[in-house]
C-alpha cells in the first residue's frame, strides 16, 4: 500500500438502483468531508443508461469500474433476484481480487465496502490484503437486526415464517408478523433461503463494521440497541439518509432512458400545493394485471390528483419482473380500465416506466406517495416530508412497511386484499389529512426535521461517519 496520498475506499454495489445510489452518495460524502478517494465497482448485468448517467455524474475523486461479465445462463429461469445478485458476485470474485490487489499497490487503500448481497466479496478483499472490510446495508436498522439474528432464528423457529401465529420479536424492533419477513425467507426449500442464512453468517464472520443507511429518529429503539458495543459483533454506524438531491437528479434527467421528465414536472407546476399523490413502485416493481386495474379504479374513485409511473403488468405473478430493467415490457396503457385515461385526464398524469422521483417528491404540489416501500424511496420521501401509503411487493419491502406504519407511524398501510374501495379510502385519508392521515402527516414532518438535523455538523449521522473514518485511518 502507498503510504502517502489520500485515503482510498473501494466499494462494491450489487445490482439495483437502491444499492448503487446510496453507495455513490457515501463515496461523495467521504470525498467531500474527509478528502478520500474511491473506486466504485458495479456488475456488467446492470450497465443501463440510468446507471451510466449516475456514474458519469460522480466527481473526479471517485472512479467507477465495471467488473467483467459472467455467465448466469445455467441458473434456473425462476431464480429469485437475491440468488442472481449473489451468484453474479461469487463468479466475479477472481476478477475483483486481482483488481483490489492492484489498487492496494497504487493507492492508500484503507477499506473495502460491499453491500449485503456482495458479502462474499469480503473474502476477496481479505485475500487481496485489504485491512478493513465493511458491510454497507442500504436497508433499515430492522433489516440489519434480522441479519444479525437470522442464524439463531432459523434454528429456534423450525417451521415456515409465513405460518407463525406470533410475530418475530427482535431487540429494539417492531414485532414482525411471519408473512412480513423478507420474501427470500418465506420458503425453506428455496435456494434463496439458504443463501440468506449463509450471507448473514458471512457478514458476522467477515465484516469489521456495519454502515447503515438509516437514522436514529425513524428507528429509535433499534438504533439504541445496535449502537451499543456488543462482544463478537462489529460496530454499527447509522449514517443516513444517503439519497440523491433534486439538483443532482435534475442534472442527469436528460440521460434518462424514457419519456422526457419535463412533461410531468410541468404538469405538477400547474397543480395546487400538496394536492397530488405520486404513485410509483420503484425501478423494479410491477403489479399483476388485476391489481393494476384495481389501483387505477381506486385512484379514480378517490377523486384525488395523481401522478402515476405506469408499467406493464408483471408476468406469472413475478412482482420483480423489472428489477434489472425499469422499462415496460409492453404498452402499459392497454391494461388500464376502459375509458380510464379519458375520465381522469383532468386529475391524473400517467408517465410510462420512469419519472424523476427526487424532483417529483421535492415538488410543492406533491402531497403524498403511494410506494412499494423500497428503502431508498422511503428515505427520499421522508427527507422531502411526503407522507406515504404503503403497498409492499417483494424483498424486504413488507418488513419496511411494518416498521414504517406500526413503528415510525409515517405511512398508512394498505390491507392484503387491495380493491378499489380500500385503495381510494387510504388515498383520501392521506391526502385530506383526516384521522390517521393527520397523524402520519405530522410524524413525517417531524422525521424530515430529524433527518436534516442528523446530517448537520455535530448531528448523529455526521458524527457516526466521522467516527467510522477516524477508526479506519487510526488503525492503518
Automatic annotation (TrEMBL):
Keyword flag Metal-binding: no
GO molecular function: UDP-glucosyltransferase activity
Alphabetical UniProt keywords: Glycosyltransferase, Transferase
Pfam family name, one: UDPGT
Protein name in the entry: Glycosyltransferase
Superkingdom of source: Eukaryota
Enzyme class: transferase
EC identifiers of the protein: 2.4.1.-
Gene responsible for this protein: LOC101764150
Family according to the record: Belongs to the UDP-glycosyltransferase family.
InterPro entries: UDP_glucos_trans (IPR002213), UDP_glycos_trans_CS (IPR035595)
Amino acid at each position: 500500500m502507498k503510504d502517502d496520498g489520500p485515503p482510498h475506499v473501494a466499494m462494491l454495489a450489487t445490482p439495483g438502483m437502491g444499492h448503487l445510489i446510496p453507495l455513490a452518495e457515501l463515496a461523495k460524502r467521504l470525498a467531500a468531508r474527509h478528502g478520500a478517494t474511491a473506486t466504485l465497482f458495479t456488475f456488467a448485468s446492470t450497465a443501463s443508461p440510468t446507471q451510466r448517467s449516475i456514474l458519469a455524474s460522480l466527481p473526479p475523486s471517485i472512479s467507477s469500474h465495471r467488473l467483467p461479465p459472467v455467465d448466469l445462463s445455467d441458473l434456473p429461469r425462476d431464480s429469485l433476484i437475491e440468488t442472481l445478485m449473489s451468484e453474479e458476485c461469487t463468479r466475479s470474485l477472481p476478477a475483483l481480487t486481482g483488481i483490489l490487489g492492484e489498487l492496494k499497490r497504487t493507492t492508500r487503500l484503507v477499506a473495502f465496502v460491499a453491500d449485503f448481497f456482495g458479502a462474499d466479496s469480503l473474502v476477496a478483499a481479505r485475500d487481496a490484503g485489504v485491512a478493513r472490510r465493511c458491510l454497507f446495508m442500504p436497508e433499515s436498522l430492522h433489516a440489519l437486526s434480522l441479519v444479525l439474528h437470522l442464524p439463531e432464528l432459523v434454528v429456534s423457529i423450525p417451521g415456515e415464517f409465513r405460518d407463525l401465529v406470533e410475530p418475530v420479536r427482535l431487540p429494539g424492533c417492531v414485532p414482525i408478523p411471519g408473512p412480513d419477513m423478507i420474501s427470500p425467507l418465506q420458503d425453506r426449500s428455496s435456494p434463496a433461503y439458504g443463501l440468506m442464512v449463509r450471507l448473514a453468517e458471512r457478514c458476522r464472520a467477515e465484516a469489521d463494521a456495519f454502515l447503515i443507511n438509516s437514522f436514529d429518529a425513524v428507528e429509535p429503539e433499534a438504533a439504541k440497541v445496535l449502537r451499543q458495543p456488543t462482544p463478537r459483533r462489529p460496530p454499527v454506524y447509522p449514517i443516513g439518509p444517503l439519497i440523491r438531491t433534486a439538483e443532482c437528479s435534475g442534472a442527469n434527467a436528460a440521460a434518462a432512458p424514457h419519456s422526457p421528465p419535463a412533461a410531468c414536472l410541468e404538469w405538477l407546476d400547474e397543480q395546487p400545493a400538496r394536492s397530488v399523490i405520486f404513485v410509483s413502485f420503484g425501478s423494479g416493481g410491477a403489479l399483476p394485471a388485476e391489481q393494476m386495474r384495481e389501483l387505477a379504479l381506486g385512484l379514480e374513485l378517490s377523486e384525488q390528483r395523481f401522478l402515476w409511473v405506469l408499467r406493464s403488468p408483471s408476468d406469472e405473478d413475478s412482482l420483480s419482473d423489472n428489477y434489472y430493467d425499469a422499462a415496460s415490457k409492453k404498452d402499459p396503457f392497454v391494461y388500464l380500465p376502459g375509458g380510464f385515461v379519458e375520465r381522469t385526464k383532468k386529475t391524473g398524469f400517467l408517465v410510462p416506466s420512469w419519472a424523476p422521483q427526487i424532483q417529483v417528491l421535492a415538488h410543492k404540489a406533491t402531497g403524498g406517495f403511494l410506494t412499494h416501500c423500497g428503502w431508498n424511496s422511503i428515505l427520499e420521501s421522508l427527507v422531502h416530508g411526503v407522507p406515504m401509503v404503503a403497498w409492499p411487493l417483494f424483498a424486504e419491502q413488507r418488513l419496511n412497511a411494518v416498521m414504517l406504519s406500526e413503528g415510525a407511524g409515517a405511512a398508512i398501510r394498505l390491507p392484503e386484499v387491495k380493491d378499489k374501495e380500500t385503495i381510494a379510502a387510504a388515498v383520501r385519508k392521506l391526502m385530506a389529512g383526516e384521522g390517521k392521515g393527520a397523524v402520519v402527516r405530522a410524524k413525517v414532518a417531524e422525521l424530515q426535521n430529524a433527518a436534516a438535523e442528523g446530517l448537520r455538523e455535530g448531528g448523529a449521522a455526521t458524527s457516526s461517519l466521522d467516527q467510522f473514518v477516524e477508526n479506519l485511518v487510526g488503525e492503518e
